[in-house]
Amino acid sequence: DSGVTQTPKHLITATGQRVTLRCSPRSGDLSVYWYQQSLDQGLQFLIQYYNGEERAKGNILERFSAQQFPDLHSELNLSSLELGDSALYFCASSVGATGYEQYFGPGTRLTVT
Amino acid sequence: DQQVKQNSPSLSVQEGRISILNCDYTNSMFDYFLWYKKYPAEGPTFLISISSIKDKNEDGRFTVFLNKSAKHLSLHIVPSQPGDSAVYFCAAKGLFFGTGTRLTVIP
Predict the structure, then answer these.
(1) Which residue, B103, B86, B77, is CA-closest to B39?
(2) Does the beta-carbon distance from B46 to A58 stay under 8 Å?
(3) pLDDT tens for residues A102-113?
(4) Do B97 and A45 touch (CB under 8 A)?
(5) B50-98: per-residue pLDDT in tens?
(6) Does the beta carbon of A100 lie under 8 angstroms from any beta carbon of chain B?
(7) Which residues in chain B touch residue A107, judged by CB atoms under 8 angstroms apart?
(8) In terms of CA atoms, which chain A residue is nearest residue B39?
(9) Which of B101, B76, B92 is nearest to B25 (CA)?
């Protein structure tokens, strides 16, 4: 158990809808990262927050947004969902802002029908 | 554009033999590399890392080699065990991941 929790585990929704994925980092970790893993693809970095502020941005679509709250949990919002958004979404956390060693949650599997 | 590449999607090795997983990167500014291991239905877990100031880092059965001139790193597992069967991801700077190599260790 990495100490990182993600909810929900599974999510099935229709195209055009909006969903929110939630992540709670390990106790004491200030950074939260979001990744997308599509079928047969590697982990695509989406965005990083450090202590409530956006720290780094990857290939995150404009339809996606994220935030980190004062209690350090984070939410990833996906809107106007398309079939191609079906993927595993992982959250990870680390202690520092450049914490190369990250601890991953179990992921949320999103299926868009 | 994939900045970290793992060109072998899968690898099968006999138990007790050496497993060698390879990774190439394109950005010469990358100065820190990590290997993660992933079992089904779980998130990746950190395995071993290496800084660009080193060319080798060892941790038990796992050794990572870095060849900066070739922009290449490799993970050696000796001896391989059935419990090592998993998907292995190479990552640069903790943010750029390869597509993974599925290692199967045959008993």
Answers:
(1) B86
(2) no
(3) 999 999 999 999
(4) yes
(5) 999 999 999 999 999 999 999 999 999 999 999 999 999 999 988 899 9
(6) yes
(7) 43
(8) A106
(9) B92
Contact B41 A45 (CB under 8 A): no
Check A106 against B34: CB less than 8 A apart. Answer: no
- Amino acid A68: pLDDT: 98
Pair B96, B4: CB distance under 8 Å: yes
Instruction: Mention every residue, 6+ apart, whose C-beta is less than 8 A from residue B106.
Output: B12, B13, B14, B15, B82
Nearest CA-CA partner of A52 in A77, A20, A75, A27:
A75
Q: Which is nearest to A109 in space by CA: A30, A21, A1?
A: A21
Calpha distance B20→A4 (Å, rounded): 30
Give the pair of three-digit tokens for residue B77.
Answer: 């597992």
A59 or B98, greater pLDDT:
B98
Question: Is B39 touching A (CB cutoff 8 A)?
Answer: no
